[in-house]
Structures are given as structure tokens and as C-alpha cells.
């Protein structure tokens, strides 16, 4: 196959074009994994980002076999790197058979907690099919809400038999006819979920080099260090303490840094420590990723880090330095969650940060210093943490196209890299866990890690690591004999991502500052994670709040009222995010329906402040009707912005303010949630949608609320507009396309 065209001129002929469309890096990592497996299967593969195709669909005219790994971002949108590719693929002047020569498959990445699950991947699949392309293998739709690996692993297992069968049929004998061929998998993975039963009877996958087996010699060794616990846990084994000294050192370090960590006895009894299979059970393990990074000390003294210029995700502005000027607690001390409002002072050259109400921005964060210190101690490199090292690709590595990750500086200290560059709080993916077991000296702990990454232990990984939200630090504390080299961690840990927040300010009201609201994320020490912690960013800002409180500062006033010595001089590095659609209608006469329980109400406060200023400046303008649905637990504890919103209603800025209190149903005539009030006012809302072109805004929790609100709108359209369920859903889908049903939601 010849591959020519913009972005592909220098590429050698290959059997497969492997494209990825990635926003945060997941799709790229998966595509790189597919490329390595292609090479091991004797299939030549050209890996490219969608942006490298640039603006020419002609690139696909030169390709006969395509694999696309496609993430979905925002409200069903393509990643930034794939927007031009998507636009040109959807040009209307393409003949129906433009891609009839092309065979393809798509692996879509999405999250069912959001509407438009895997929308970009599904859109590309539909478009390719409409242009005459043929699927050589069923598309897979992986759900980050339940675990991407639940779909990805079986999808990839079936991909290569299907791919080789297609290539042999297409090109004849370029692959050795001695290879054992299997029929292509016909499994439809579109509805695959983690609720499906995971079978444990597969121990061999032919001659497939993607998998290797745990050594039976190791299994025999394991037997001596495991003991069966009580009869209620038949066929399970309990891990006895293996490294008391390591555990004690960890507990001592945690005490030094005031981290609330589980005791040694509690750690040994965690569910993740319990083996799930009999000792003679064969396990099918994924192949270990080849190591590819090496470190060399270039300066024995402390030195300067060479900064990296890796693009920030979804960046729509330059990075700017801001100062915290106000911290305000919005909830009572008795509230279940703590909500804070933080105000940041923008730099004087504000043209670098031009925003509208409803926009979001990213805060560049760093890992907690005490957690990094514990990690350095666990790895045994505390004494070298501040030396300057040069990071480079390991000579003769077997990893294809190996390179130092773009978000890691090639010259830096290990402390800087672990604090600022890699996400040590991310849930360890299977390739990292697979690598860790190679550096685990305890046979019993190694056996358990083998179970967690094995094909047979897929549900164990999901339950004990992914759903438990364990981190690398948790694993190293639990499996005390695991001592990986730091380069192994740098090869596998993802980028430390900025934290996104919605702006609640209006530039018409205050052009010098922006404000945002959040709940402090609390992760308690329970029977899963090994130590209590708060969110990286929210925990940092909460510590600022507490520091001022301990100094006796009135935290409902701005920092500018303090003396210089009392100021914390707290800075936040931020940037404006792209793909912003969550804006007020340009036509002020358009009605708006806002749904924002909890901190989801924050951007709507910005909307109303903005409208108040516009109405004051243009009193004769026609302003559309406005509805705001708000909900919280208790009227007296977490009713955010109550007085201000009620003033908006009194002044006619807001026409309808509908509230619900989920723990005080008697106060709301039995109504508990915002979706209940939507149903209650269904006739008026349906008329606004169908007859007056209202715009709906939903902000808050994606896991339950956003889905329930969507279903409530489906119901009111059925009940009040003579719509069938299908036609109601189609109407809302069209509203989403027209940017009349907008969401700013999070999990």
C-alpha cells in the first residue's frame, strides 16, 4: 500500500494506517500499544495523529486499511487534534463511493456518564460507511465510566485474527502462511459492559505473543508463603506480612508528614491483598512493555530544570499568573460538603485572558509535596531527589519509536518531575501493574499482582484497583516488597493534567478578577485507599483557607484588606480552555432554562450578573424569560447564593427560581431533586422548548443528575407535545447539535 499526501510523504509503505484522536493522551497510548502488537504479529503499521493528515482527505484515498482510535471530548465533540480531520471528512462534495477501497475499524473512547457516548468515534464510523468504506472488524465502544479495559481487552484480542485474515484476503501471502489463523471475531461490543460475566477458563491463546503465562515454578514457590484463611473464604488465600521493616518505615514517614494512613494490620487485611484463585490456577498475563528510558546524573549538586513546552490540553489562551485575592466559604460547618468560592486577580494585560460568563479555565497544579516525599522514600531515592538527571531513550530498546514523554523535561531533578509532571494520583493502568510485578520480591505479593493483571483476574482489577480509585502510592504501600526503578514509573505514569473550573464572573461587572466555586474533594481512609486525602487542587485551596483561618483572618473579606505580612501571596497559574459553547444566547430575547444543583449553580450566577449589567445599560431591550432550577441537601446548610439569586428575582433579572431540598422533602411538597421540579413544570417548559426556541443549560454532576434531567425533558415533551419517546429524544438530539441543549458536567 502506498501512503502519500500531506503529513505522510516520508512514511514507508505499510499494511495499516493507525490513526488516533486524543485529548488527554489515552487514545495515543492505546494506539501505540496496537502498533507494538501489530509489529509482533508481523503487520507493518504507520502510526499518525489525525492532525498529521491536515486538510486533505486524499490521504485516505491512498490507504486500504485503517484503524482509528478516537476519543470523544466536551459535549460529544472531537478532540482538538481531530477537528480539521472531522470537518474535511464531512465535506458535502464527496462522492458516495469516495472511500469504497477502504476497509476500517474504530475503537471509540467515551464515558456513559455523559450524553453522546463515543459520539466522535460513532460519527466517523457512520461517515466512513456512508462514503463506501467497509468494516473489516466490528467497532468497539469503550466506556471510561466502567473501565476502558473492559471493552478494549477483548476488542484487541479479536482485532489481530480479523486484521490478518483481511490482509491475507486482500494481499495474498505477505504474512507467513505457517501462522495459525483464527476466524475473525464477530462479537458486537457496542453494548459490552463491566456487568458482563468474566470467564476464567481461558489459560492459553494459541501462539499469540501478546500474552505470556505465569511461571508454574513461581506458583510452587508461592505455596510456601500463603496460608488459607477461614472456611468462609474457600479457595482464597491470605497474604501474611512480608516486609515489616518497609511497612514500618512507610508508617513513620506518613506520621512525619501528618498523613492519616492505615495501620500495618489494616493494610494486611485489605481485600486487594487476598488472592482469588487456587495456587495451581494458570494465569494468562499480558506481555510486559519493553523498558525504554534511562537516567544519568549530570550534576551532583542541585541545578536548574530545563522547562518543557508541551501544549496544554484544550488551551485557548496563554498561561497567565494570577493571585488569590479572596476565599469565601459558602456552606455551613454542618454541611455534608464544603463549598468554597475563590477569586483570582488577573494580570494587567487582560487581553491575554478574554472570557465570557460560562467559560472554563484550567489551573496548573502540582502533586502534594508530602506524597512525593513518601514516594521517594518508598523508591529509596530520597538522597538523590534533588540532583539533576538527564533522561534519554535506552539504547537498543525494543520499544518502537521510543521517545522521552513530551511533558517530562529531559534535564531535571526527580523531585521536580514527580511533583510537577506526572500524575501519581492516577489509577494505575494494567501495563504499569504488569511492570510493577517484575520488581516485587515477595512471592505472595507477586502472585497477587499477577492475578490483578491476568485475563482471568479482569474483574479483580476492576473491583480492587479501578473502582477503589487506588493510586500508585497505595499500591507501593500495600505491596511493600515492590521497589521499581523510577524510570519504570516515568514510562507509564500519565501527564499531571490541569484542573478545570467554570468561571462564575462577568467581565462587565468586574474586569480585573475571576471567581470560581468548588466542593472540596474528600477521599476518606476506608477499606480501599491506604490514606485519607483531599483533591490535589481543592485540597490545596482548602489549605489556604485553613491557613488564614488559623491566623484569625476573616475569610469572607479579601486579602487586600490584610497587612503585607499577613498576606499569603498565593499564586495560581491558569489558562482559558477552548471549545467554549456554554454561553448566554447572543439574542437576549431567547428564553433560557438553567439547571444547576449544588455548585452547578455557580456559572448561572455569572449569567445573571451579566444580564443585570446588560439590562441596566439597555433598559429598553427585550429580555427572554429565564428559569433557574436549583437543588441542595439542606436549606440552612448548603443553599448557595440564596440572597443574591433572590435579589435577581425581585429585580426581574430572573423570572422563575425553583428550588428543591433532597433531605427536606416536606419543605418542597415531596419534591427531592431538580428533575422532579422539571416534571412538575413540564407544560411551561415544553412550550418554551418547542414554541419559543429556549436554550437549556445543565451544570453539575454527570453521573446521575445530568442523565436524570435529560430523561425528565424526554418525559415532558412526550406528555405535553404529543411526541413519542423516540421523537422526543430526536428533538433533544437536534437541540444539542444546534447548541440549544448545553452541558457543563463532571464526574
UniProtKB/TrEMBL annotation:
Keywords: Amino-acid biosynthesis, FAD, Flavoprotein, FMN, Methionine biosynthesis, NADP, Oxidoreductase, S-adenosyl-L-methionine. GO terms for molecular function: [methionine synthase] reductase (NADPH) activity; flavin adenine dinucleotide binding; FMN binding. Its cofactor is FMN; FAD. Residues 317-585 form the FAD-binding FR-type domain. Residues 16-160 form the Flavodoxin-like domain. Coiled coil: none annotated. It holds the Pfam family NAD_binding_1. Its EC number is 1.16.1.8. It comes from Cherax quadricarinatus. This is Methionine synthase reductase. Signal peptide: none annotated. One of its GO terms (cellular component) is cytosol. GO terms for biological process: homocysteine metabolic process; methionine biosynthetic process. It is an enzyme of class 1 (oxidoreductase).
